[in-house]
From TrEMBL:
Name of the gene: ANPEP
InterPro entries found in the cross-reference section: Aminopeptidase_N-like_N, Aminopeptidase_N-like_N_sf, M1_APN-typ, Peptidase_M1, Peptidase_M1_aminopeptidases, Peptidase_M1_dom, Peptidase_M4/M1_CTD_sf
Organism: Nothobranchius furzeri (Turquoise killifish)
Domain of life: Eukaryota
Region spans: Disordered: 39-61
Protein known as: Aminopeptidase
Length: 798
């Protein structure tokens, strides 16, 4: 336990003087804050937090005429296996370029007679075989057609081979290519990551194949349904280690060539190849070898220990939850200095940003620890849902990502049962995406397969609707089916389709079977009828409960009620809504709102535990009764009661310009014992404020150093940055889960010393809260209780 300090009056007075001097800066900060916030919000392609714009500059529509004009592969050829040999060079060549060379032989079956071979390839230079890009051989005894010509298509990213006669349906062939590519630092395909260690530049060759970059590493049928077995061999320097999806099979001494066990039947986007001089720590379960890989100094400083500790229970949880063994013999996880997404679920070799896998107990923030747990739980959830059973095409991405975004809380909760981390699902997914999905420009979760074919269209799918709304509606589904029924349906789905591909209706079918086999479980429509309303139309309803008239109504909720919804819906923007509710503090039987308007009973609090993906409005009297109830005992409902009620009020005020509502005395909601989890809705705003404090008051740019985003897909270079290096930073931190002592902490690190600069940080916190109009409820008495961490978490209160 840490030591407790008390501020002397003089110190506080001195600090106040400084605070006043800097008051003007606060005003400047306010402007800068909003500017930066707007900038951040408009960053494109952020996987978990942004929305992707679907608008593109007008272009002349291109009409495909020949098979290689289409973005989707023809259906005539199906790969069975690949032999891929790659040799990345970790030193530049005479032109100053980092390159890799390789060769690949893909064995494929012909399903339909054809004289064309179309296979994905991008940014590769091919070795010329008598004027051709490839060599074709028969896998067995079949006659092999001669090659007529071959060429590359830049737009659709193919290698096309025209044959002089046709391949025969049912026969197997092998296509061999040799090629060279650049190991560029573009974070795509087989790429180069750089970092400094003891002043020396180090190079890692690593990969990111999802969604369409495997074709930049070797020619392949680069679609998720084109599953095959991959036999990988990597050539590398003796002082480096090579990793891939399978376990290393052989490597000589000195290590020069590493071959790997053949993979299971899998999709190209889940492949990974890495060459580095990283080291690892390991443990195991009875059937899985678990390793955490990172830079030597990170491992030496024990930053991988936490990840290793939580991986085992999380894997064990999923094996039980899915009723399905982990499908591989090993689980490697590696922290990369340069990585685009927060993490990537490559089967058996998961890649992470350093800050999503490494945790330093001395210097990383508690929120950092929580993120590490969540990201690991997310990626490991994919080992079954996504990797073992893969969706047929990218239009169903929401199910893959929404699912992992939902169950990650179950896995993390199992590993850290004291955190109540499942509550965070409401903040991180439900509340977050309710704001985005309330816009008339939102879009449905599900898209038609033909709407998503170009690589750019596929990348657009990685947005907040897919991740957060996906998680929110699956959570609602699990709530109304109950978790055991949901898990049973899931298990039968995974066991039926192992090593295969599916469409989302396959999951509905298996969940329906689980419902049908559960006596006493009564849902008013089939799983697919209910879920279609949530997945095939955009937005969500606001349920209005009028306790005066006893009516319950639903309406499409729009943040701007005057906005025009241009996208028609086959369901006219009505939903089948499961409503959990309570009256006078007592939970009532779940209510299904199936029509637009229903006369009801006396309602008090609807959507308890925010289990449904909708907002709730009440008549004014009921709002008043709710607020007064929260004042006397805010714990009458779930932990999110107060926070979500308050949030509903804010939303209804802004959406409906409801001045009466805004005049309700919300200060009644103030409560000294308010749960931090409700407060943390504002934590990112406060953290951002402190980054600006650093920048403008203290002259340090920490914007790239604290509380990193884990879900983003924007370019994110983390060179020279690890949790350890937070040591010199000022960092404001509000926990997003309940801490044992239930205090909101403001953590400052400044060379591990308490200095006047850190006082500024502390004194500014309440001012910032005022500046950004953070409501009194959230800035209650607890903000004065500041835990000051110095070295071994020394605490200080005043
Ligand atoms: Zn994911």
């Amino acid at each position: 336990m840490g030591k407790v300090y008390h501020f002397s009056k003089n110190a506080v007075l001195g600090t106040l003087v400084l605070a006043v001097t800097a008051l003007a800066t606060i005003i400047a900060l306010s402007v800068a804050y909003h500017k930066e916030r707007a900038n951040n919000q408009s960053k494109p392609g952020n996987g978990a937090s942004g929305t992707s714009s679907t608008s593109a500059p007008p272009t002349t529509p291109f009409t495909p005429k020949v098979p290689w004009d289409y973005y989707r592969l023809p259906k005539g050829l199906k790969p069975e296996s690949y032999n891929v040999n790659l040799w990345p060079r970790l030193k530049p060549n005479s032109d100053g370029l980092y390159i890799f060379t390789g060769n690949s032989t893909v064995v494929f079956r012909c399903l339909k007679d054809t004289d064309l071979i179309i296979i994905h390839a991008n940014k590769l230079n091919f070795t010329n075989f008598k004027g051709m890009h490839a060599k074709l051989s028969s896998h067995h005894e079949e006659a092999v057609p001669a090659l007529q010509k071959s060429w590359l298509t830049a737009r659709t990213e193919y290698l096309v081979v025209q044959l002089q006669s046709k391949l025969k349906a049912g026969a197997m062939y092998a296509l061999h290519t040799e090629f060279m590519g650049e190991l560029a630092d573009d974070l795509e395909g087989f790429y180069r990551s750089e970092y400094l260690e003891n002043g020396l530049k180090k190079i890692v060759a690593t990969s990111q194949m999802q969604p369409t970059y495997a074709r930049q590493a070797f020619p392949c049928f680069d679609e998720p349904a084109m599953k095959a077995i991959f036999n990988i061999t990597i050539i590398h320097d003796p002082d480096t280690v090579a990793l891939s999806n399978g376990k290393e099979k052989s490597h000589g001494v000195p290590v020069k060539v590493t071959t790997f066990e053949p993979t299971e039947k899998m999709s190209t986007y889940l492949l990974a190849f890495i060459v580095s001089d990283f080291i690892s720590i390991e443990s195991s379960t009875s059937n899985i070898s678990i390793r955490i890989w990172a830079r030597r100094t990170a491992i030496d400083n024990r930053q991988g220990d936490y990840a290793l500790n939580v991986t085992k229970p999380i894997l064990q949880f999923y094996e039980k939850y899915y009723s399905s063994n982990y499908p591989l013999s090993k689980s490697d996880q590696i922290a990369l200095p340069d990585f685009n997404a927060g993490a990537m679920e490559n089967w058996g070799l998961v890649t992470y940003r350093e800050t999503a896998l490494l945790y330093d107990p001395m210097l990383s923030s508690t929120e950092n620890k929580e993120k590490v747990t969540n990201v690991i739980a997310h990626e490991l959830a994919h080992m079954w849902f996504g990797n073992l059973v893969t969706l047929h095409w990218w239009n169903d991405l929401w199910l893959n990502e929404g699912f992992a975004s939902y169950v990650e809380y179950l896995g993390a909760d199992y590993a850290e049962p004291t955190w109540n981390i499942k509550d965070n699902n409401i903040l991180n997914d439900v509340q977050k995406v309710l704001a985005i999905d309330a816009l008339a420009s939102s879009h449905p979760l599900s898209r038609k397969e033909e709407e998503v074919s170009k690589p750019a269209e596929i990348s657009e799918m990685f947005n907040s609707i897919s991740y957060n709304k996906g998680a929110a509606v699956l959570r609602m589904l699990s709530e109304f089916l109950t978790e055991p029924v949901f898990a049973r349906g899931l298990s039968s789905y995974l066991n039926t389709f192992a090593f295969k591909n599916t469409v989302y209706t396959d999951l509905w079918d298996h969940l329906q079977q689980a419902v049908d086999n559960t006596p006493g479980l009564d849902i008013p429509r089939s799983v697919s009828e209910i879920m279609n309303r949530w997945t095939l139309q955009m937005g969500f309803p606001v349920v209005t409960v009028d306790t005066q008239t006893g009516t319950v109504t639903q309406k499409h909720f729009l943040l701007d009620p005057d906005s025009v919804v241009g996208r028609p819906s086959q369901f006219n923007y009505t939903w089948f809504i499961p409503i959990k509710w309570m009256k006078n503090g007592v939970d009532q039987q779940q209510y299904w709102l199936l029509d637009k308007t229903v006369s009801g009973e006396e309602w008090v609090l609807a959507n308890t535990n925010v289990s449904g993906f909708f907002r709730v409005n009440y008549d004014l009297d009921n709002w008043g009764r709710l607020l007064s109830q929260l004042n006397t005992n805010h714990q009458v409902s779930h932990v999110h009661g107060c926070g979500s009620i308050y949030k509903h009020i804010i939303r209804h005020c802004s959406a409906n310009k409801n001045t009466e509502l805004s005049q309700l005395d919300q200060s009644e909601c103030r409560n000294d014992t308010a749960e931090p989890v409700a407060v943390s809705q504002y934590s990112s705003m406060l953290v951002h404020s402190c980054v600006l404090l650093d920048k403008y008051v203290l002259g340090m740019d920490t914007s790239n150093s604290i509380l990193p985003s884990t879900g983003g897909r924007g370019r994110h270079l983390e060179q020279n940055r690890t949790p350890l290096r937070h040591g010199n930073k000022c960092c404001l931190f509000l926990p997003t889960f309940k801490q044992p002592d239930r205090k909101i902490s403001l953590v400052c690190y400044l060379n591990n010393k308490i200095t006047m600069k850190t006082y500024i940080c502390i004194i500014f916190a309440p001012l910032l809260i005022k500046t950004y109009k953070i409501p009194a409820f959230f800035a209650g008495k607890w903000i004065k209780k500041i835990i000051f961490h110095q070295n071994k978490a020394t605490s200080l209160f005043f």
